[in-house]
Amino acid sequence: MPLINMERVLRISDTLKRFDLGSAKLNVFDTRYYPPASDPPKMVTLYFLVMVAMDHRLSRPGKPYEAVLNGKRIRGADLLYRLGMMVYGERPEFFSPENLARITEDEVVAWLTIGDASPPDPRLRALLLRDLGQKLLSLYNGNPLAMLQIPRGYLRAAEGYGLLDLLKVFKAYQDPVEKKAFLLVKFLFYRGLFEPRDVENLHVPVDNHLTRIALRLGIVELEEALFKKVLNGYELTHDEDALIRICVREGFKAVSRESGVDVFLLDDFLWVFGRSTCMQEEPKCYSCPFRGVCRAYDVGVFVKDLNYFNTWYY
Fold it and tell me: Name one GO molecular function term (predicted).
């Protein structure tokens, strides 16, 4: 079973305390990727519901999801949200529940294909969008703001439903580790559309970058057999993937608590760090601020991303 190494948590937290992370905060008003600040809350909420639903596993080994836009190579989630804003600017009705409820695989391919970049699972993505649209119509009369009002600011509720509970009705948001749910909450919070009252229930949205970082730093340790499976790139089961990522989630919650860094700001920092420094291939250890407290650097063994690609969870 995975476990959290609290000694590593404390050492990494002490290192984090010396950083000024203010500049790491995600700018959710950058109109290259997100709707303008002046747009109606309903449209903004629909945009994020759709885009986060699509924010999973766009690249595959040997086939990265990247393309050149305006002379600059863009990849992964950056490209996804750029394409989202392109269609949002041209046809905002694309994001309406009525359109989502009948969207086709061909329409998803047309939307998310540019140059050599194309989604690896368009049939699944179309299914997720139809499910989202149909349930928004049947449960909330097509108005996502109605869903945000029900929890009264709670993520989880002993009585009634918190926002995390309500999101689980949508297939796109059924990850047991709730990566997409927490990413959506972060966007909504940053945009002033939802303010969590039970902050103790906030967590980082655990994706491949955060998992890789946690395993390399030694925040999360795996039993020998599972570690060898990850290190050698063997395909994981659904439960193995979930167990590792839930431990990563709790590990970074401990880092947030010990360092005093807000979980969402911590996520903003780690996501960029995972793409720019602690990359899957050729990590830049020479410039890494955690080099002195990193288990992988100490022992010279660097795990790569979990081999669990056929998922819409993250």
Answer: catalytic activity
* 19-59 per-position pLDDT tens digit: 999 889 999 999 999 999 999 999 999 999 999 999 999 99
Same domain, 50 and 144: yes
* Parent domain of 75: 41-149
Region of 142 please: left (phi>0), alpha (psi -120 to 50) or beta.
left
Gap between the Cα atoms of 31 and 35, Å rounded:
6
Q: Same domain, yes or no, for 54 and 128?
A: yes
Whole-angstrom distance, CA of residue 140 vs CA of residue 147: 7
What type of residue sits at position 166? Answer: L
Q: How far apart are CA 44 and CA 193, in angstroms?
A: 9
Tens-digit pLDDT profile for residues 87-111: 999 999 999 999 999 999 999 999 9
Contacts of 137 (CB under 8 A, 6+ apart): 97, 98, 101
Give the DSSP letter string of 79-112. Answer: HHHHHHHHHHHH-GGGGSHHHHTT--HHHHHHHH
CA angle (48 as vertex; 46, 51 as ends), nearest 5: 105
pLDDT of residue 22: 86
CA distances from 217 to 49, 52, 203, 227, 302 (A): 32, 27, 19, 14, 10
Within a domain: residue 228?
yes
- Non-local (6+) Cβ contacts of 237 within 8 A are none
Q: What is the CATH number of the domain that holds 237?
A: 1.10.1670.10
Instruction: Assess whether 249 and 213 both reside in one domain.
Output: yes
Determine, yes or no, domain membership for 287. yes
Q: And the tokens for 110?
A: 């047309």
The secondary structure of residue 200, as a DSSP letter, is G
Q: Which amino acid is at 198?
A: D
Cβ atoms 219, 12 nearer than 8 A: yes
Helix (H, G, I), strand (E, B) or coil at 305: coil
Written as six digits, the tokens of 179 are: 């990566």
Q: Compute the CA torsion angle 30, 31, 35, 36 (nearest 10 deg).
A: 90
